[in-house]
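so ive been stuck on this for like two days lol. basically i have the seq below and the ligand is flavin-adenine dinucleotide, smiles is in there too. i just want the complex predicted, nothing fancy, no docking runs or whatever. if the output looks off dont worry ill sanity check it later, just need somthing to start from for the group meeting slides
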Amino acid sequence: MIVIGGGLAGLSAGVALAEAGWRVRLFEQRPFLGGRATSYVLPDGEHVDNCQHVTLGCCTNLEDFYRRVGSAGKIKFFDRLLFQDPQGRTGEMEAGMLPAPFHMTGSFASFAPLTLADKRSVARAMLDILRAKGHTPDLDVPGGISMLQWLKRRRQTLGAIERFWRVVLVSALDEELDRTDARFGVDVFWKAFLSNRSGYRMGVPAVPLAELYDGCKTEIEKRGGEVNLRMPVRAIRVEGGAVQNVEFDGGRFETADAYVFALPHQAMAELTDEEMKRCEPGLANLEKIGAAPITGVHFWFDREVMHEPFVTLLDTTTQWIFNKTALYGGSNGTVKQSGQYLQLVISASYDLLQKSRQEIIDLCLREVQQALPAARDAKLLKATVIKEAAATFSPQPGVDLLRPKQETKIRRMFLAGDWTDTGWPATMEGAVRSGYLAAEAVLRSAGTPRAFLQPDLPPDGLVAWLV
Ligand SMILES: Cc1cc2nc3c(=O)[nH]c(=O)nc-3n(C[C@H](O)[C@H](O)[C@H](O)COP(=O)(O)OP(=O)(O)OC[C@H]3O[C@@H](n4cnc5c(N)ncnc54)[C@H](O)[C@@H]3O)c2cc1C
């Protein structure tokens, strides 16, 4: 069994197949595992994440994967999400005493950055999602409708759109509301905020991302498999409707009974020739799937400037500030060293792509100083900007029609990757789902079916009676 790609999709497929008794040989082009959700070491020895990654309570497959590879204990979950606007008004989202779907009512009612009219309009739209059990009929329009259209049909106020829907969804889906299929947006609110009490809980890694994958190599190797780094696949040979082999540098060929290609969709498109597109029409659409950017900004201050583990900013370019020192340093809010390391995240960061590194640092520093008064007197010791122009696939309306299944019409070829047909947007959860689905497809085709995919969180509270 050969798996190409050592991101979450390839790793989850590889670990699942190893568990099912297959000898897995995984090939990754880079010198480390984790793909887009990884970390590396700067020349001065500092570990930095490619970008801060977070998960939510509703990401049941990612949680299962972390458990399988012994990393579940490296994720810290938080029940309270904090928001702050430039005027210093704050709001929280935290489950109170009431059962779902009313568990957020208390914190929402006192959410200072929204006016009463904003809150009324949000409540109306939420009721609509609830009544439709997470799937309003207008989501089924052929080709999809955008989230902005969906919100306008429900007469959402400008404040509600800018300071509530946009804030949550641009972070969750990495795209602007007018370019997002409403199906994904409505799903976020149904699965994370309405259908049960714990779907919204935010999980943040307490270690640099690459450390989450230490157990994967062990799981694959202890069943006779191998993990090969710095091994880019250069070509896939398909003949007679079946994969014959894959080619590496130096004219090396490898063959297997089955191949899982767990590459980003752009890399898969580069390896796809006309013969493959003819055999598997799903591969002909890869170039039509768009990409969206994320920018991460890393600041190291000479002193502590922030107590909270993270905060969401409203009405600014900077969307999130993560207190990495606290998140790495033990219990919530504890700072080990005298200085402090913060990581800022800007999703759908189209406006920053043309800006220079220094322009981005200046802009974000001003916003941090406005949000965190202690940063005004602090010295910025070091800063790094990481622009990912193609961070995720763009969840554009109708994109699901372009996403191929994990099982293909080419014998021995299986696909994985957040962009394959998982029903989920480009997330770590989506990547793991695709890996599990690919492993299930391999086992089905070998006549030894087995299930890996985990069910969604079940609705609880009053919602359990409704659905
Ligand atoms: C900046 C940023 C922030 C994000 N934030 C979040 C977040 O907070 N929460 C969340 O859930 N998701 C987040 N995501 C999305 C998440 O990282 C991805 O959805 C997920 O990691 C994709 O996993 P994958 O395995 O499908 O693809 P990838 O991680 O891209 O893995 C593909 C692998 O294939 C390898 N490869 C490519 N070509 C070849 C070749 N020819 N031969 C061999 N190997 C090859 C690559 O090196 C890579 O390791 C973020 C993504 C980015 C970029």
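The first strand starts at residue 2 and ends at 4. The pocket of flavin-adenine dinucleotide is lined by residues 4-10, 27-30, 35-37, 50-51, 53-55, 232-233, 262-264, 267, 294, 296, 388, 391-392, 417-418, 426-431 (CB under 6 Å).
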